[in-house]
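Dear colleague,

As promised, here are the two records you asked about, laid out in our usual form so they can be pasted straight into your sheet.

NAME FIELD: protein one
SEQUENCE, THEN STRUCTURE:
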Amino acid sequence: MFVLPEGLPLELTPFAFLVGKWEGTGVISYKINNTDDDPVEKEFKQRVEFAHDGSNALTYVSSAELIDEAGTILPSEIGYWTIARPAEAADHGPGLIIGSGEKSIKTHEDLEKLSNPEGGFDIQVSVLHPGGVAELYNGKIKGARVDLASAHGVAFENAKTYRHSARMYGLVEGALLWVWEIALPGEDLKPHASARLERVE
């Protein structure tokens, strides 16, 4: 039986199945310069944590490394997952400005007013990469499935970038499965990586 994580803010209850620490393995697959050569394929292990600090955002941290003799470290990710809704006076920011007034989401009924026509919720996800790239995703969460598509991105001039990205997360028989597709410049979306993670905390 699933139990809501202790202290989870009401606004984050659609993300409840994600909260915790996850570990597992996956496969990276990509082609270089869109050639007819077979794709490069590498196995990796990953650790992901979804957590909350009482605010209206779920925090996301991912670290990964290749399963090879060197234990090659792969780029990490940090980010924030939120329900898509207009900012209100009670929200903190910009910067460290403290919000004022009461939050609009105080009951489950208030939260349900934000549900989309499919019966889930529209969400927004921001992800920061150490290579100087920041991504903003729009998406949907329904039950134990998340679908994301990149909406905007910014990068330093010397960063390695891609044109578009889509991700899917789902809970299957207690395991968190995810798939990531990217479109390199001048190309369409193609499979990039996937993994199966088991809850460890």
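NAME FIELD: protein two
SEQUENCE, THEN STRUCTURE:
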Amino acid sequence: MKKNDLLLRIADTAYNIGFGAKKHFATYDIVEKAPGWIGFISMGVGVFALFIDILATKHISAILIILGISGLLINSYGETKLNYEKNGVLLTQLFNDLKSIYFLVKSSEKLDFSDEAEKLSEIESRYYSHCISKQILFSDLYAHYKFFWQHQIDWVDEQKHFRFWRDKIPLSLIIICLLAVVGALTLGVYYAHSKGLL
């Protein structure tokens, strides 16, 4: 295998493993923290609803019930959350091993990289055997943030050439933002119409 081809393959694998590690950590973080935040927000809204009339409406109650149900669904991951953390750590170690191989190959002048290609194949096998396919909702978005904005990935970018709108901003986030804007406009028109402003 040629040096440039191997470097690109290492970067491709590193992207998959690094993003996979962050996805496992994202699921762990959501399962660990979201129920507490849901409980805190629900309790806070409940307290303020005692003296702020708009918070005591059916709409707010329905939203709080949906949040409570979401908390119950998130708690179903509770028994396996430590597996997500453990596998995230292992995948991060594999990512760092790939980084070492990458710089070793990059600085090498030799022509035969069969040993490095074999190590890469071993790392890929370990990666596939330690991935948990069942991830929580929105873990992709959170993992995207963790990978592109918190992780040191300059060496992967050297080969992959990540672009801002295509790679660093997830399409699902753009769609969610558009839906939020459309929803806010719809609610605004509905509210204005109900108050006779339109």
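A couple of things worth noting about protein two: Residues 3-48 form the longest helix (46 residues). The helical segments are 3-48, 58-75, 81-107, 114-129, 139-150, 154-160, 164-168, 171-194.

Best,
R.
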